[in-house]
């Protein structure tokens, strides 16, 4: 085994040791350590689980591509490229561009929130990619698109589609965690990158410390 | 073994955002309680979570559940410094409101009210949505959480500037980022693996 892998969020957000954001992340040391452990549990699991490594990276490549965060998308694309045949990587590339849209959209249960229903596109894997991806990955990508862009449209029927495609109940739990974890990891990376580039001239902390207390008391 | 989804034809799903206590029913069979191993108990982190069908379903993959739970706890409960708990809960509520997770929003709006003592302001976020006008500080936290929740992410320099103008330092901004980002994880699991049930007192 190689040495401990680098912290993926630091790597993707471009956070160097001893930088201000590195120190701030260390003040949430458990969150940092367990975000990394989450990555390892999903992408380098100690117990193989119900997903192959290729399935894990193929779905991750797709999800990261749909979020259009270049550093993250390249990281998971490189992971899949290492593990899988070229034609699988190529299929994922075309599926990302076919699946790209904006979220969140979707429907609420019928009632007062129905006025907030937002229509959006459905997504199905292209016929020409179906053979190379196979029925389990086809179902996984279609479910990933639902979770990424319109999670409030989720339904038992969507899970039944996964079961019918050969996913086990436990496999669906792992798949759901993987997609949802990426929704978290990608946002932490995006947020930290933005903060890092905006951190050149931080505001004067002593002034805000007092003010923050007043504002937090809700008396404003 | 044939695996199928679970359904609840008698359930009346809540149709509005609320601070009341809702229940949740899984669409897949939770892990059998009588088969829990040490690894599963470690995944549950708190033994009391074995009573929750949500955590018992997630216990089917205990390693990711354990890491997820510990991430969650540090982001929200580590308040030795940084953003006050109430405002972390506002970030969680705003993300949940924007994604449309009625169950998650109910839990975290209740926490936001409990810690801020501003139940009416929290209710406005639920009733009017994330465009509501509460006060500059909460507005900035809500807007930043929403921008981070959009796909693709729309969080940029404008959100950082607004948070700083509202008095947040960089550690507090990281708490907003973590809180909103974490709920993009939680919302997707809650929305896609089961359905909420009406407030307990009406059930």
UniProtKB/TrEMBL annotation, chain A:
At the top level, the lineage of the source is Bacteria
Which InterPro entries does this one have? AhpD-like, CHP04029_CMD-like
This chain's protein is named CMD domain protein
Automatic annotation (TrEMBL), chain B:
> Gene3D superfamilies recorded for this chain?
AhpD-like (1.20.1290.10)
Q: Where is the Carboxymuconolactone decarboxylase-like domain?
A: 62-144
Q: Which GO terms describe its molecular function?
A: peroxiredoxin activity
Q: Which residues form a coiled coil?
A: none
What name appears for this protein in its UniProt entry?
Alkyl hydroperoxide reductase AhpD
What is the native source organism of this protein?
Microvirga aerophila
Its organism's taxonomic lineage begins at: Bacteria, Pseudomonadati, Pseudomonadota, Alphaproteobacteria, Hyphomicrobiales
